[in-house]
């Protein structure tokens, strides 16, 4: 970060008396919106209120020292750290769930795996929501994916060395959110690439253009030369703010709630914030709009503290009900997945560059650290989480796929869907209607041989996770009743819809075939887990529960883009239902999760939301212009 100190505000006395736009949450989506609004409207002032601070050092996933995502070392990557309520259906498992707590949000602290969902994921948002939401399908989002990122093709030498492929037509932006392939890969990565081909999967030239079934190369969100993390705090704040006198950032302040002194239609609301430096609580006036962009785990807390949420819960928390909106903090879902298969090689190849060498060869480690600081950077530390993954559809991997799809459709239609929802809202007709719409949209995806159900990323090694891309189980984010300003309580309810286990089972059965492929046999692969003793479906499900990781760090759905009568929180313009001057722009709007990691989608949603807001304020000067949905499709 190289930001003139004056641009960063730390106390109320440094603020203007009012702002046109106030954005709560300076993360991936929020800063994208702030950048576009300050650019489009030089005469309108924009304030971003951010809980975290400006970090001089937000390391990449695998930068030295490699303490990334370690809850014990939040100083290296500042996180909110959650351990959800244990999920009884997965043997009371909990697990680490993080959320970025810095300027740049989770884009500044994530694993830098920079894929997109498939077109079917975004189409399913429009499908689940129904008429009026068509602009949120793939066609409606693709231009914003392109705008949001700059892809840097690798050199011919790297293509020759690592086999990278891409299709530049999937990209196109000039935005300095960088996507690139690193100069380094572990040598044994090749084994699995060939194994997947043995299993009938096909490499895809580009997986960010709508179709991603097969074997994918996935770029890293980092600079192509320095290999340093690229994130919203840099590209949408530090790099642009010097030329934007209308762009203010207030750090170390918690957005508490929004207040409508004269009724919900009198918006925009006032924003109540608390200084984390001296506990001073004060109000900020927005004259045009308030945008909540605090992420899936915090946006619902701001709404709940505002009295906007499930009436029953608000009453139990002693919060006056301003608007009964049961979807706020409901519909929580994340990708989950067991460590599906682990194996040993009895005839390991003669690979020189594998991670173990970092532990056994001090000179190699020293050279790797030195190489990371060179320009251009080189060596192992230029790697992110991984650059390769398989994405496999249910029809491709499960002989019983039709039965699974039929079961989901049956649940959606036979009146039993509500029994899988959290007790708190399983009798609410709107929430049930919305859940059924989600189930049917997911069933259509799972029936589609082009829509992936399983993701397995890898970079090296002898162990693989099997991530469920379309979970059916739903949980909640609720305020802590003991302290409404403390971190919320997450109830993941992982596995509460048992069909999730049918799908996990299919995934594990598919993956464990790998040891029998010709490529693996060449290296004498022998399965260690699940292991020869685990063969029956019942035993495999026990194994899955034992091995389950409940979060892939992709919580979503807690302020869903659905009509109100489907338990939705925001409409097609991302305005909170039945309110004026209040929108949500972050990953809480995902009614159904995507088959991919979320950061590129967070940028695209931010870009699209900004285009909607800009259009509305340009047409009428009052933010009331009818959005031209067609133009954005
Ligand atoms: C550990 C981890 C690893 C991940 N790995 C990957 C990956 O490899 N690839 C990928 O694509 N995605 C990954 N993700 C997911 C992805 O980065 C996020 O889903 C996405 O960036 C979220 O964007 P957002 O705009 O919804 O929220 P965020 O980017 O999280 O922004 C929310 C912001 O709001 C602030 N905030 C919260 N509460 C308040 C409040 N009350 N007042 C003011 N500010 C507040 C936060 O500090 C934060 O800056 C990962 C996430 C995590 C946590």
TrEMBL record:
PROSITE patterns found in the cross-reference section: GMC_OXRED_2 (PS00624)
Keyword field: FAD, Flavoprotein, Signal
Binding-site residues, FAD: 28-29
GO molecular function terms attached to this record: flavin adenine dinucleotide binding; oxidoreductase activity, acting on CH-OH group of donors
InterPro entries for the chain: FAD/NAD-bd_sf (IPR036188), GMC_OxRdtase (IPR012132), GMC_OxRdtase_N (IPR000172), GMC_OxRtase_C (IPR007867)
Pfam family, one: GMC_oxred_N
GO biological process: secondary metabolite biosynthetic process
Superkingdom, natural source: Eukaryota
Family annotation (Gene3D superfamilies): FAD/NAD(P)-binding domain, Glucose Oxidase, domain 3
Co-factor requirement: FAD
Similarity section: Belongs to the GMC oxidoreductase family.
Protein name: GMC oxidoreductase
Source organism of this protein record: Podospora australis
Lineage: Eukaryota, Fungi, Dikarya, Ascomycota, Pezizomycotina
């Amino acid at each position: 970060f190289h930001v003139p100190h004056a641009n960063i505000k730390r106390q109320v006395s440094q603020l203007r008396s009012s702002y046109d736009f106030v954005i709560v949450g300076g993360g991936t989506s929020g800063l994208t919106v702030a950048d576009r609004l300050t650019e489009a409207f030089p005469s309108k002032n924009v304030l971003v209120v951010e809980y975290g601070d400006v970090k001089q050092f937000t390391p990449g996933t695998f930068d030295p020292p490699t303490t990334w995502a370690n809850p014990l070392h939040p100083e290296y990557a500042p996180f909110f750290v959650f351990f959800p309520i244990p999920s009884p259906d997965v043997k009371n498992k909990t697990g680490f769930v993080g959320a970025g707590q810095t300027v740049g949000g989770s884009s500044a602290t994530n694993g830098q795996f920079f894929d997109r969902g498939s077109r079917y994921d975004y189409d399913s948002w429009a499908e689940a929501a129904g008429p009026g939401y068509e602009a949120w399908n793939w066609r409606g989002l693709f231009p914003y994916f392109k705008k949001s990122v700059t892809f840097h093709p690798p050199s011919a030498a790297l293509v020759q060395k690592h086999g990278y492929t891409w299709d530049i037509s999937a990209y196109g932006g000039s935005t300095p959110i960088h996507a690139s392939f690193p100069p380094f890969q572990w040598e044994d990565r090749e084994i699995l690439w060939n194994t997947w081909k043995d299993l009938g999967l096909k490499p895809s030239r580009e997986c960010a253009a709508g179709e991603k079934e097969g074997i994918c190369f996935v770029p890293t969100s980092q600079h192509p030369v320095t290999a340093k993390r690229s994130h919203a705090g840099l590209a949408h704040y530090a790099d642009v703010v010097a030329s934007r006198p209308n762009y203010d950032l207030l750090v170390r302040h918690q957005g508490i709630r929004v207040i409508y002194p004269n009724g919900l239609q009198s918006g925009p609301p006032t924003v109540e914030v608390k200084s984390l430096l001296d506990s001073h609580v004060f109000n900020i006036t927005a004259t045009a709009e308030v945008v909540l962009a605090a992420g899936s785990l915090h946006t619902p807390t701001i709404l709940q503290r505002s009295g906007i949420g499930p009436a029953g819960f608000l009453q139990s928390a002693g919060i006056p009900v301003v608007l009964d909106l049961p979807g706020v903090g409901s519909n929580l879902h994340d990708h989950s997945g067991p460590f599906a298969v682990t194996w040993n090689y009895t005839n390991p190849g003669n690979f020189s560059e594998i991670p173990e060498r970092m532990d056994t060869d001090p000179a190699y480690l020293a050279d790797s650290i030195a190489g990371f600081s060179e320009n251009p950077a080189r060596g192992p530390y230029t790697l992110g989480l991984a650059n390769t993954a398989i994405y496999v559809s249910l029809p491709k991997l499960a002989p019983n796929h039709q039965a699974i799809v039929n079961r989901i459709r049956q649940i959606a239609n036979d009146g039993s869907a509500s029994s899988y929802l959290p007790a708190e809202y399983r009798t609410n007709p709107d929430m049930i209607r919305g859940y059924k719409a989600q189930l049917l949209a997911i069933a259509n995806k799972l029936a589609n041989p082009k829509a992936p159900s399983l993701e397995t990323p890898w970079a090296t090694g002898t162990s693989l996770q099997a991530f469920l891309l379309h979970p059916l189980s739903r949980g909640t984010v609720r305020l802590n009743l003991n302290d409404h300003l403390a971190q919320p309580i997450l109830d993941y309810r992982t596995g509460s819809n048992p069909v999730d286990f049918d799908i996990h089972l299919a995934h594990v059965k598919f993956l464990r075939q790998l040891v029998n492929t010709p490529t693996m046999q060449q290296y004498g692969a022998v399965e260690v887990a699940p292991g020869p003793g685990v063969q029956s479906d019942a035993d495999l499900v026990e194994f899955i529960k034992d091995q389950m990781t409940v979060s892939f760090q992709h919580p979503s759905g807690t302020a869903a883009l659905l009509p109100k009568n489907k338990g939705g929180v925001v409409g097609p313009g991302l305005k909170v239902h039945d309110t004026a001057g209040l929108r949500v722009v972050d990953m809480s709007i995902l009614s159904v999760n995507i088959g991919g990691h979320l950061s590129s989608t967070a940028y695209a949603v931010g870009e699209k939301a900004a285009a909607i807001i800009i259009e509305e304020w340009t047409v009428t000067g009052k933010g009331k212009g009818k959005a031209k949905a067609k133009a954005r499709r």
